[in-house]
Write a structure and sequence with these properties.
52% of the residues lie in helices and 0% in strands. It has 313 residues and is mostly helical. Helix 7 (187-202) packs antiparallel against helix 9 (236-254). It is elongated.
């Protein structure tokens, strides 16, 4: 018997062949783009297949454009978001009952006017209709002619004075209504009126009574908070709504004439939009899912584009 050769033994038998993967009956999918030369060859060799490829490509591009348009519409505008009737009423400070329809180049309306929420009790010079009515009644009572010795001596004098008083009082009331009308006020007067409307709509002294509280987490107890002593003007939703009114007013001005060249106005618009974005991010973290968050987003038409990702314009 020959001696063994020390070291590693080498097997001279052929290795077993690896099993081939099972054949697939699915069509072969082109994963890499073909060259221009290959496209021309395919167009000449098999025009029917080339037409099918182009038809599938066009259908895919059309569907992708539709989906992108839907996503863009749902995302909204970073400055205006989705326009709601309450936001549209900022233009007239809640005095116009219907919206102003858009018109084309020839001046023909392209949409119908729709009703807007109104606040007829809000007047100019920081007054309300109830305060004016009380002042008018008090002035009428103080200026009404009274019977005196002179009127007793002249029987028709008291009736004449009362008729003059009625006409003068009606003239004074008409003049007062014209002075306090917001339709003739400035943009500053409308801004103050909108702030009052916003405090009435989003202030927590009102929403705490009408909206349900935020659901508690497991094991969390609800804390009793003291009753608010006055109007709420500093909560996040009130500040966000005030910024939205200011942003809309400034954006409308920049869209007119040569507003695109107003560098200071565009800078102020960016600052307000980014400030609102910070407040929305904070409120989303604190109040997301609550009735207060849903009420603010639906009322102001705030979309994801107003508080998500980076805002550039």
């Amino acid at each position: 018997m020959p001696p063994r050769i020390p070291g590693r033994t080498v097997c001279l038998r052929p290795a077993a062949a690896k099993p081939s993967p099972p054949s697939s009956f699915l069509p072969v999918t082109q994963t890499a783009p073909i060259s221009q030369k290959a496209k021309k060859q395919l167009m000449k060799q098999d025009p029917y297949r080339w037409a099918q490829m182009q038809q599938r490509k066009n259908a895919h591009l059309e569907r992708r454009a539709e989906i992108e348009a839907i996503r863009t519409q749902q995302r909204g505008d970073p400055v205006r978001g989705h326009t709601t009737p309450f936001v549209e009423s900022f233009d007239s400070a809640g005095q116009a009952p219907f919206s102003t329809p858009r018109v084309d180049e020839d001046g023909n309306p392209i949409e119908e006017a729709h009703p807007l929420p109104t606040s007829s009790h809000v007047l100019n010079n920081l007054l309300s209709q109830a305060e004016v009515d009380a002042a008018v009644q008090n002035a009428y009572a103080l200026t009404t002619p009274m019977e005196s010795d002179y009127t007793r001596q002249h029987p028709g004098e008291l009736e004449k004075r009362r008729q003059d008083h009625e006409s003068q009082h009606a003239t004074a009331v008409e003049a007062l209504q014209r002075i306090l009308a917001l339709e003739k006020g400035s943009s500053k007067d409308r801004r103050h009126a909108n702030i009052r409307r916003i405090v009435e709509t989003f202030g927590r002294h009102e929403t705490d009574l009408t909206l349900p509280p935020k659901p508690l987490s497991r094991g969390q107890l609800r804390e009793e908070r003291p009753v608010r002593g006055g109007p709420d003007t500093g909560s996040s939703e009130v500040q966000i709504a005030i910024l939205t009114a200011k942003i809309r007013a400034l954006a409308n001005e920049l869209e007119q004439g040569r507003g695109y060249r107003d560098k200071v106005g565009n800078r102020d618009l960016r600052l307000m939009v980014h400030k609102r974005q910070k407040l929305l991010t904070y409120m989303q973290r604190k109040e997301r899912g609550s009735a207060r968050w849903q009420h603010m987003v639906e009322k102001l038409g705030l979309s994801e584009a107003t508080y998500k990702d980076q805002i550039t314009f």
